[in-house]
Amino acid sequence: MSVSEGPRGGTDEPGYPERAAATAPSVAGLDERVTHCRACPRLVAWREQVAREGRRAYAGWDYWARPVPGFGPDDARLLVIGLAPAAHGGNRTGRMFTGDRSGDVLYAALHRVGLASRPESTDIDDGLRLYGTRVTAPVHCAPPANRPTPGERDTCRPWLAGELRLLRPTVRAVVVLGAFGWQAALPALAAGGWSVPRPRPAFAHGAHHTLAATDGGPDLELFGCYHVSQRNTFTGRLTPAMLTDVLGRAARAAGLTAP
């Protein structure tokens, strides 16, 4: 799908994500529209600056420098929600959680649980496949200092809500990495067809909540996990065993592994 087939209005308008996500006919169509979004000027400027300046370790790389869509099958039963692409990770490779230390930790754990074909992810052509699992984020552009503003988070939220809407027939469990992702995901989950309790569930590592469906469909199992950031993994706040445990419980809840 070309961007011209999407809704009217420029891709640099703040309302573009909401219009484009609401009318996306498929996960693939939504992913295509995501890659053309320019609704957040600060993020656009940063992702393109990073691509121009690069980093010595990646000399010769042609950076993606666009919003990074979700990665994984369009009939996933498990959705993993992070924070945002890394400046020299997903912003470089064009695939969520690819090519950085956080991705190394995440995909190694997904492989241990049987949800990924290989334990590492280096670039978009490395042959990695996910089984019944999709990886996405509430913010699709790399933010300065890895910190999107609340306004950028809210502008980008329709993409996640649209992704959840399109995955509604199959998705049965969600793992949210970190408190920022948790706060951003709850409104998107409510928009996607599930009832989020009030007061909203607090983020915690290992948290597990069942969200009742609002449309008569299956409920959703929601899990919290510390983010796979270097700060958490290098200090031992999040160990490989802790991550594997949460992903394993979520996979079983989604029906991807034996109980």
Automatic annotation (TrEMBL):
Coiled coil: none
CDD domains reported for this sequence: UDG-F5_TTUDGB_like
InterPro entries: UDG_Type-4/5 (IPR051536), UdgB-like (IPR044147), Uracil-DNA_glycosylase-like (IPR005122), Uracil-DNA_glycosylase-like_sf (IPR036895)
SUPFAM superfamilies named in the record: Uracil-DNA glycosylase-like
All residue ranges annotated as the Uracil-DNA glycosylase-like domain in the record: 69-247
Keywords per UniProt: 4Fe-4S, DNA damage, DNA repair, Hydrolase, Iron, Iron-sulfur, Metal-binding
Transmembrane segments: none
Region ranges (Disordered): 1-28
UniProt family annotation: Belongs to the uracil-DNA glycosylase (UDG) superfamily. Type 5 (UDGb) family.
Protein name, UniProt field: Type-5 uracil-DNA glycosylase
Species this chain originates from: Streptomyces lavendulocolor
